[in-house]
């Protein structure tokens, strides 16, 4: 639906790049941390995807023609999740040391999101809609951090240094008493257990600009 927007504003928006999100991560974090079952959280996904695609359509109606729509990250690779929901059953982990059941949720979200983007592409052929693939790149950064100029894939930079398997303690999170920050954050993928470092986002930005982690690449 085309919305009434001043001509000069519409012209400006048509020359701008929009990155819509990432949306969805906290919509899953909040209920999971609140004790909701994964089965219940799965039921939220279609509603969240509908809200995201509706937001894209709103932007298009305002005049946007270049929009990146990011998926969610592999939450099963976050040290916070790995610490709070760690398992003694090795089959609960994938080959990279991430919790499969949480990554399955991320993949489900991303699959429905890509389907939604495909529908929007068919409806708005003149608009350039790009899928920002957070999941694949971050999973590869966990698997092979040195390929991205990093040293550590699952350890946190700011947290409870030397504690647990990931330098993470939920009672000594980054900024809390008992926590400290590493001296070399440029070598870490993960900042505080659930957020990435500046170094990680620099690599992600490059991957989106030139490919292959944005489909199509922004500069394609």
UniProtKB/TrEMBL annotation:
Any one Gene Ontology molecular-function term assigned to this protein's record: hydrolase activity, acting on ester bonds
Alphabetical list of Pfam families matching this protein: Lipase_GDSL
Signal peptide from the UniProt entry: none
The entry's keywords: Glycoprotein
Keyword tRNA-binding among record annotations: no
Transmembrane segments: none
Keyword match ATP-binding: no
Coiled-coil regions, chain positions: none
Top-level taxon: Eukaryota
PANTHER family the record matches: OS01G0214600 PROTEIN (PTHR22835:SF286), ZINC FINGER FYVE DOMAIN CONTAINING PROTEIN (PTHR22835)
Similarity field: Belongs to the 'GDSL' lipolytic enzyme family.
Protein name in the entry: GDSL esterase/lipase
Organism whose genome encodes this protein: Aegilops tauschii subsp. strangulata
């Amino acid at each position: 639906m085309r919305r009434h927007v001043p001509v000069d504003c519409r012209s400006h928006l048509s020359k701008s790049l929009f990155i819509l999100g990432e949306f969805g991560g906290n919509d899953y974090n909040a209920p999971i941390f609140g004790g909701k079952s994964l089965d219940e959280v799965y039921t939220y996904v279609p509603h969240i995807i509908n809200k995201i695609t509706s937001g894209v359509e709103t932007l298009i109606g305002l005049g946007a023609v270049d929009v990146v729509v990011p998926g969610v990250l592999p939450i099963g690779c976050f040290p916070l999740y790995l610490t709070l929901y760690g398992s003694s059953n090795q089959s609960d982990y994938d080959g990279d040391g991430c919790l499969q059941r949480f990554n399955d949720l991320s993949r489900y979200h991303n699959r429905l999101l890509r389907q939604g983007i495909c529908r929007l592409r068919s409806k708005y052929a003149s608009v350039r809609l790009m899928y920002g693939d957070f999941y694949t790149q971050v999973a590869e950064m966990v698997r092979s951090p040195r390929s991205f100029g990093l040293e550590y894939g699952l350890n946190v930079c700011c947290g409870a240094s030397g504690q647990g398997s990931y330098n993470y303690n939920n009672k000594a999170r980054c900024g809390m008493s008992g926590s400290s920050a590493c001296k070399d954050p440029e070598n870490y993928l993960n900042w505080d257990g659930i957020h990435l470092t500046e170094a990680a986002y620099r690599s992600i930005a490059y991957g989106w600009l030139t490919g292959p982690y944005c489909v199509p690449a922004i500069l394609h």
